[in-house]
Write a structure and sequence with these properties.
Elements lengths: L1 H21 L24 H26 L8 H5 L29
Helix pairs in contact: 1-2
């Protein structure tokens, strides 16, 4: 179930990004130049309308998918009352051990004959 929501959310986000990048608020972007139709797609000037509706639909779907996945998808092992009750409270602390001295560097042996 988690994988399904992740795939749907990623798909909606990628499609939304693609549609937003295709659009240009002044009509001079790729939306206005699809195959040289100049905002006319099969005789009707509705390419920008389709892209705008697609943007709203995908944005709404992304929001709904995120909210539903937060409610439906089970989270990992969380902290429960039983977990809190099982935490040991006595004898858990001990005195810190003495710090360990760093190892002394080994000096090279004197050369023979000197």
């Amino acid at each position: 179930m988690t994988t399904l929501f992740i795939v749907l959310i990623i798909l909606a986000a990628v499609l939304l990004g693609a549609i937003v990048l295709i659009q240009n608020p002044k009509g001079g972007g790729l939306a206005g130049n699809i195959a040289g139709f100049s905002n006319q797609f099969m005789g009707v000037k509705q390419t920008t309308d389709v892209l705008e509706k697609g943007t709203w639909i995908l944005a709404s779907a992304l929001v709904v998918l995120c909210l539903v996945s937060a409610l439906v998808v089970k989270t990992g092992k969380g902290v429960t009352n039983e977990t809190i009750k099982n935490i040991p409270t006595t004898g858990a602390t001990s005195a810190p051990s003495a710090p360990v001295a760093p190892a002394q560097p080994v000096s090279p042996a004197p050369a023979p004959g000197k």
